[in-house]
Design brief:
single chain; 103 residues; 0% helix; six-stranded antiparallel barrel; mainly beta; elongated
Length: 103
């Protein structure tokens, strides 16, 4: 779990806006200090050294989180699509399936 920052305000578009010292990945889950999921990272914008982060809330009362510290939960990250379920050979490369017979 890594500290993301303090929520500065709730935007009209429906995002919680906060400022951080590092750049999180998009769609990272965002939690509060009680480890309840608040939302996901949807946008990173502004200066490179101290960017702003827009979090799409998944809670009923997002205005209640203004001034609260939020964190990125690294353990709740989803695996990358297309990586799971592929068969590998001894060399480490994925094999192509054999072509189907026609006719």
């Amino acid at each position: 779990m890594r500290r993301l920052g303090k929520v500065s305000h709730y935007a009209k578009q429906g995002f919680l806006i906060l400022r951080t010292d590092w750049v999180p990945s998009l769609n990272d889950p965002v939690v509060d200090k009680k480890l309840t999921v608040v939302g996901v990272v949807k946008d990173v914008f502004g200066p490179v050294k101290r960017p702003y982060v827009a979090v799409k809330p998944r809670v009923k009362n997002p205005e209640g989180y203004i001034g609260a510290l939020l964190y990125v939960d690294t353990k709740r990250r989803k695996s990358k699509p297309g990586k799971a379920g592929r068969k590998r050979t001894k060399g480490g490369k994925a094999r192509r399936p054999a072509p189907r017979k026609r006719g």
